[in-house]
Structure formats: C-alpha cells, structure tokens
Amino acid sequence: MSTPSIVLVHGAWHGTWCWSSVQPALEERGFSVIAVQLPGVGAAPPGDLESDARAVRLVLDAVEGPVVVCAHSYGGIVMTEATAGAPNVVGLIYLCAFMLDVGQSLLSAVGTPPPWWSIHAEQNVIRLHEPECALYNDCTPEQTMAAMQQVRPQSLPTFAQPLRSASWHDIPSAYVVCDRDEAIPPEIQKAMATQASHVEHLDTGHSPFLSRPRELSDLIAKLAVTVLNGGGPVTNARPLAGSRR
C-alpha cells in the first residue's frame, strides 16, 4: 500500500502547537502530516464534541489516499467519532487516549473529576489547576513553562457528550500506553488497550510529544507503515528508534 498521510489530533486544553516537534520529524520521514485544531479548546463560545469531530472529518475528507489518524488523550474520543465511516482512514493510533464505546463520554469514564480540573459551569469550561505533575511530570521545567503558557480552557460539553459512533470496531487500531502517565493511569490505559488491534508502550508521562518527540515520531511512523497500513518501510527513512517496553 502507499505511504499514508498522518492526521494528528491534540487533546484537551492543548492545540496544534503540541505537535510542533513531532510533525516535522514525521515529514522528514516522507509523510504528509496535518495537525487539526479543535474548536472545543479556547473558543468563545466553546465548541462541543460534535464540532470537534466535524473539524477532524473536514480534514479527512480533503485528503486523497490512505490516512492514519493519531490522537492524544481526549482527542481519542474525537477521533473515534470523526473517523466512523471515513473511507480513506486505514488506521487509528490512540496515544494514552480515551478509547471509549458508543454511549460513553469522558466524564462518564472518569467519574470523579481529578483535583487538577477546575470546572467553571457558569462559563461552560474546564480550566487547569496546577497540572504540572499530571500532564508534564517527565518534561523539563522549560518545556512545562512553555506548555503552561499555551494551554487554554476546555469546553465542558466536549467532556459531557456521549459518543454516537465508535470507529475502532471497524478500523485497525493501535494503542500506545505511556507507562509513567500521571493523568490517565497506565492500568486504565491497558484496560482500554485490550480493544485495540495492537499495543505498544512508551516509558513516558502524559505528554511524550514534549518529553520524547523523536521517540514518539519513530513509533508513530512504525505503526502507520508496518502495523496499521500493512506496508513496508518508508523509502529513505532513517532507522527506527523503536518503543520502550
């Protein structure tokens, strides 16, 4: 099969900026890469799960040829909804992401909100409250500070709305468990990963696109070409660094 394009979907509170080191690393390997900005982050008025999924689907519909979608954290829910019935999507990569089924929402999966969420019902948003340990526990102080300057409020409806479709039932999927994650405990990730076609591990916290961008890029490339797309190595690609187990 031909080399797939890769679409990157960020998680809650973040934006396309979080892929700023991963995207060029994948492009160096010969991939066409698109990072999608979700309207559920920082918008006024805030978007919802439906508008986030629509933003991803518009990108997918504009891409010619096979596509592998990689989503982080909350972005896994968006990807699950947006890729249902998408004829050119050949694979899904859940990066320490919520891999839920029809009728489930992020709030229903989480249960009690963690202490680093600050819910502002009157504004219909969720803000972050001292999230450094949960989201950036293996990042440098400089990486953490830069990220904290760019995070934005997250739309509360994006967490509350249930999935209407679950594409992983029909599309090959890989789950990347981040073994030092303090935001989504690895045991919870492993439970969700039992639904995936393939499972890998990274020895990172919740934000490997910041702490280990090259290693993450290597793994996404390997999954996109050899696991999900059923093809061979990308022409002139440098050797894979591989994932840690």
Characterise this structure.
With 245 residues, the chain is α/β, with parallel strands linked by helices. It has a single domain, classed as Rossmann fold (3-Layer(aba) Sandwich). Helices cover 32% and strands 18% of the residues. It is built from ten helices and nine strands. It has helices spanning 22-28, 49-62, 75-82, 106-110, 132-136, 141-148, 156-160, 186-193, 208-211, 213-227; strands spanning 5-9, 33-36, 67-72, 89-95, 117-120, 125-128, 154-155, 173-178, 198-202. The strands form two sheets. The chain has a six-stranded parallel β-sheet with strand order 2-1-3-4-8-9, sandwiched between helices. A three-stranded antiparallel β-sheet has the order 5-6-7. Helix 3 (75-82) links the parallel strand 3 and strand 4 (89-95). It is globular. This is Alpha/beta hydrolase. Residues 6-218 form the AB hydrolase-1 domain. It comes from Pendulispora rubella.
Top keywords for this entry?
alpha/beta, Rossmann fold, 6-stranded parallel sheet, 3-stranded antiparallel sheet, 10 helices, 9 strands, globular, hydrolase activity
List the helices and strands and how they pair.
Blueprint: E1 5-9, H1 22-28, E2 33-36, H2 49-62, E3 67-72, H3 75-82, E4 89-95, H4 106-110, E5 117-120, E6 125-128, H5 132-136, H6 141-148, E7 154-155, H7 156-160, E8 173-178, H8 186-193, E9 198-202, H9 208-211, H10 213-227
